[in-house]
Amino acid sequence: MHLDVGGERLAVNQQRPDFALVEPTQNHLPGPAYLSVAVDEALAVRPVFLPDGIQSGVERIRLALS
Length: 66
Description:
With 66 residues, the chain is an all-beta fold. The chain has strands at residues 2-5, 8-15, 19-22, 31-39, 42-50, 60-62, 64-65. The protein has one domain (2-65). Strands 6-3-2-1-4-5-7 form a seven-stranded antiparallel beta sheet, with no helix packed on it.
């Protein structure tokens, strides 16, 4: 599972309806992103919104699912 935001792909360690645990390497402003989940050979991509953006070093990020 990955979160694609601002040209960066972040591994998602855990995802819940309202947050995800990631390992961010840089800051991102609030805005759109894409959550990608691969199961077997099927890929599902879902648009999400990051209402608080991402801060480097903060693993828990808030999600608003579209």
